[in-house]
Amino acid sequence: MTKRDPEGRRRKIVEAAGQLIAEVGVAGLTHRLVAARAGVPLGATTYYFTSLDDLSAAALRHLTEQTTAELDAWAAALDTSADVPATLAGLMADYLTDRGQALLDTELYVAAARRPELRPLAKEWGDRLTGIIAARADPAAARAAVVFLDGVLVHALARDEPLDLPELTASLSKLLSG
Amino acid sequence: MTKRDPEGRRRKIVEAAGQLIAEVGVAGLTHRLVAARAGVPLGATTYYFTSLDDLSAAALRHLTEQTTAELDAWAAALDTSADVPATLAGLMADYLTDRGQALLDTELYVAAARRPELRPLAKEWGDRLTGIIAARADPAAARAAVVFLDGVLVHALARDEPLDLPELTASLSKLLSG
DNA sequence: GCCGATTCTGTACGCTTGTACATGTACGGG
DNA sequence: CCCGTACATGTACAAGCGTACAGAATCGGC
């Protein structure tokens, strides 16, 4: 038997599940896959999570916490920015660099579409970003910008070439003006 | 043995798969589920489609053909419209009324993100709409509007309340202007 | 040192899955 | 009428699945 470490174990399992969701999707998640990735026996995943839904929900919750932390960086960058649309476009382009992260967030959206209990997660994520942008723009415009950025996200994933940066900046400028 | 009808059978299977993708997602699709929905024996689905990937690809292709047909109606409406943003917003709001259809299109996006062979499908769909809007607006602005509408789609599905119509119209106006 | 509670883990069960395939049936050309 | 070919279908099989659980190991409180 290995050393006891309930919290560490739980965390390792959740992190492994997060990685795997990016790779195979929420629907492709299995106890065995997670256990292998986390380096724990199969029984451990069922001991800490009563069902697969529990496990995926925990992983997605963990993801939103990470994303929320990253949003603080966005807030800081936007606070000190002279050109909000350009800064926002740059942050988004940077974010899309990490395809795994982008896939994860998309998985959250899709999962939320089908599992109502996950909607608060998706909502919180978007609301947070909306709030950050609203500090530098009109609230309705901020909402529109977030919707647009979600579109940029799915567009970037489903196509080979992403929207180019100047166009992104121009669109955000239009949405955030007036 | 029932009467022979290869093409009809194939079509029934594809349609059943389409329905099911809306209900359980691409990843939730199984031969047996499709066979039951289509009212055909299990062997029929494996006879017409060599693998599940083949089957889901065919179903998604069928879906894009349907959507393409609907886009013709959008083109007609926009051609005769005095207020392009308002008309576009109305069409989109109407489209979102059918949650199953919206879920299907989202599934296509997500599937395309993970399966490169499906990307042409997603691309064609978006390009078509872009072309239609570009007839009444600047091409870059049309691209931006399509990206925005994709955002509206995922936003509507992942949340309980969709973006309201006036905001949608206002955002499209901004994106399509100048 | 002892003990109840918690953590750990290997194994087992019943079920569903994708796919293959042998056998049966309809049909169009000769 | 006959026969090769395409279509139809029930069944079988190995693999993977979620989950349950008995028993071993570890720990903190006393």
Automatic annotation (TrEMBL), chains A, B:
Alphabetic keyword roster: DNA-binding
InterPro entries found in the cross-reference section: Homeodomain-like_sf, HTH-type_TetR-like_transc_reg, HTH_TetR, TetR_C_31
DNA-binding residues (ranges): 30-49
GO terms, molecular function: DNA-binding transcription factor activity; transcription cis-regulatory region binding
Pfam family, one: TetR_C_31
PROSITE patterns reported for this sequence: HTH_TETR_2 (PS50977)
Family annotation (Gene3D superfamilies): Tetracycline Repressor, domain 2 (1.10.357.10)
All residue ranges annotated as the HTH tetR-type domain in the record: 7-67
Protein name (record): DNA-binding transcriptional regulator
Species the sequence originates in: Phytohabitans flavus
